[in-house]
Predict the 3D structure of the following.
Amino acid sequence: MTGYGQFCPVAKACEILAERWTPLLVRELLAGGRRFSELQRGVPLMSKSLLADRLKSLERSGILKSAPLANGRGREYSLTEAGEELRPIVEGLGQWGWKWVKRSLAADELDAGLLMLDMGRHFAGDRLPAKRVVARIDFSGLPRGRVARRTWWVSVERPEGEVCPDPPSFDVDLEIDADLAALTRFWLGRATLANGVRTGAIKMRGPRALVDAFPTWFGVDGASTLRRPW
Amino acid sequence: MTGYGQFCPVAKACEILAERWTPLLVRELLAGGRRFSELQRGVPLMSKSLLADRLKSLERSGILKSAPLANGRGREYSLTEAGEELRPIVEGLGQWGWKWVKRSLAADELDAGLLMLDMGRHFAGDRLPAKRVVARIDFSGLPRGRVARRTWWVSVERPEGEVCPDPPSFDVDLEIDADLAALTRFWLGRATLANGVRTGAIKMRGPRALVDAFPTWFGVDGASTLRRPW
DNA sequence: CAGTATCCGATGCGATACTG
DNA sequence: CAGTATCGCATCGGATACTG
């Protein structure tokens, strides 16, 4: 038996949602993921066949819809109204997890790709510098055995920002050497960037003004607190 | 691999919660279930070994705590503060499920025991009759193959109410013959009781005043809407 | 790239039996 | 009653290969 055999709406919801990977896939869609490869970047340890399966079953359940892309191959996935209404639940899970799940980061939870993906989603558009600034981040402390780029570029020019694993065609203004765990702690709001610099886990080279401004590039519109990745 | 390998708090929360049966077990604890057998009544199709497993792992995760019962054997389970803070999430799932999951009830979702358990949890204390009233419910349309009592008693006397599968030592004032699907639809707020009576799916014998009052015995304190089972 | 198809192994989970 | 122990199967899901 695959369902729960209960009329209770909680049970019916859980039949759709409380499966392995499914809430994370919904999280990716809520975060704006639209293409297969884009979704895959958010759940790198999920096998692509399972990802395809889940996309199908979520479509059958009415959580998402998809349409073939105009230019040739692939489909575009997006949430239905029902799926969009899962937002408070997924956000609630994130807030609950942030508050209650153990704070220490295990080595196998660190993932530079996920970190940079999430940073790229949370630029504070109107607080970005008016003139283009490019930062290069070099990671240390990457977990062994997980394929990952060591070096990333963050390029911002109000009101747009971009994170990418390949060098942009602009000069680098700010160089950051970061222990992955330390930058992740910063990103999770568990530590300030300044604290990472103080302990030596993070090193920043560049104009003082840029060093100070870097952490302010990310966040929620107008809010002073760092946007957490959920 | 059992976890998700992500630092994201949504992922951390889902490692604990997005497992088969787990959200329903939390629902039972949120509803006030404290004893093993009581919890089991709320998830009758979950095997007891798995129930025991989940209780242990939820305790390790800090969702619930347990203590040996004073009088001999067994333990009492209850939510920790972390577990209690899952309430909005589980309620959110229920509301979402009520709104978005298909409305028709499959035969294998009908369960008289679950229905009566839930009704017994939602008496509208202050709207109950001042003098004791006993109703007997005889179900028809029970799904085959699922062990279930056909007959139940509902006994109320302000501000207390009780549902039980054995006759109380009071006379029956109100007799109800109910198709299980019809009463479940009523309970889910998908149809009025009067509608069930009109279609013949529900028959009530007793003083007119009691017939009319019966649906008002259940609900949330002071609210006019029926309390849904989540 | 954007999936689909196939295969196979781990483990999740249910059934049953056992215990104080 | 309130669990624990054991077993065995099914299905979930990951790996790999294949396709337009």
Remarks:
- Confidence is low (pLDDT under 50) at residues 221-230 of chain A.
- The CA atoms of residues 110 and 181 of chain A lie 7 Å apart.
